[in-house]
Amino acid sequence: MKRFFLCLMFLAPGFATRADAHALSLAQADANFATNGTFAVKLDFDVVAFVAGVEPSNLRDSQVQTLATEPPAQFQAALTNAGARLQKEFRVLAQDGAENFATKIELPSEAELMKAIRDSLAQNAQPSNFIGVLHGQLPASAKEVRLQFPEVLGAVAAKMSAPGKESFDALHLPGEIGPPYEIGEIRSATPKPPMTRRQVLSRYLALGFTHILPKGTDHILFVLGLFLLSTRFKPLLWQVTAFTLAHSITLGLAMYGFVRLSPKIVEPCIALSISFVALENVFTTKLHAWRPAVVFCFGLVHGLGFASVLLELGLPRHEFGAALVAFNVGVEGGQLAVISLATLVVGWFFRKPWYRAFITIPASVIIAIVGLIWAYQRIFG
């Protein structure tokens, strides 16, 4: 019983998300403002998760199953309520404090969503994103606007455009009111200053950390695989240093355009790296000379995974390097947090004679199985 309880606590994050947990849950918004004050915001997001009332990364199979078995009238009511909630929680704020100008919302039909839900269950995959459109009318006094999206959508990458104005890309953290965007007709209007370096560092540091904890389940399992090999700090330090150096190299090279590799290759390799490290823990009791080298190679692959996230988010041109460094530091902070939490949970038992038999081996086997399942789903799913 003790072994079962400890393994559940230790590996809880590994079962908290679906097989594509590596992908950052990021909605995309395209906001267009016309000279007459009308606007349309096209939102590409996980409607199924929104109907369930959770972030896409937290959507569970049980919740999808519940939606799939609801009577049509009840499901339609849930979809209608979700649309009303989206219209209410989505906010357009003008410079004079006025807000909430969305007058109409378009969402996919009940039949389209139900088909997507059933297909996802049949294929054991996450439901596809859908397009929703919010329409509205701004007051004549509005010269600039800020957008705020429902917090449950998670991070939203928004592109704003207006006639005669340069389009503006803004990353909105969950529930955050975004930066101002000028929509006035004066074509020579002075654009708003970009984010300061301090703002860039703060934002991308937070994104890097949350990409590991709590969203990056596959990276969490890989770090736990490194953690499980030994109860001594020095072997773990060698592995973490090799991993950090490697993923920093490929993250930088990929973001500057020197390296590109398809996610169809990167994502299965990340899953297989999890299984390899975990299985090695089962068959060895110490850090062999080749382990840091192997971890370094796997770190190169994980760096490409991090890069795919940043390419989706985008980096501010005026502070590209600062944002890249901040994201990488945030990733390291997330990894150290995982190690600290793991030590807090099982560190009390490092010196117990049954530690390897009851914690290291069972936990490593479970991690290896999860990695193999993910690899299969990412290759054949």
Question: Could you please describe the fold and organization of this structure?
Answer:
The chain is an alpha+beta fold. It folds into two domains: 26-193; 201-380. Helices cover 54% and strands 14% of the residues. The protein is built from twelve helices and nine strands. It has helices at 2-11, 47-52, 61-68, 72-89, 110-123, 197-212, 217-228, 233-255, 263-283, 290-313, 320-346, 355-380, and strands at residues 26-33, 38-45, 91-94, 102-106, 130-137, 144-148, 155-161, 168-172, 181-182. The strands form two sheets. Strands 4-5-2-1-7-8 form a six-stranded mixed β-sheet, covered by helices on one side. A three-stranded antiparallel β-sheet has the order 3-6-9. Helix 1 (2-11) packs across helix 12 and helix 9 packs antiparallel against helix 10. It is globular, with a radius of gyration of 23 Å. It starts with a helix and ends with a helix.
What oligomeric state best describes the polypeptide chains here? single chain
**Helix proportion range:** 40-55%
- What is the strand content? 5-15%
The SSE order reads: HEEHHHEEHEEEEEHHHHHHH
SS elements, strand count: 9
Q: What's the structural domain tally?
A: 2
Structural class: alpha+beta
Distance between the termini: 35 Å
Task: Note poorly predicted spans.
Answer: 1-24, 186-190
- Enumerate how many helices there are, as a single number: 12
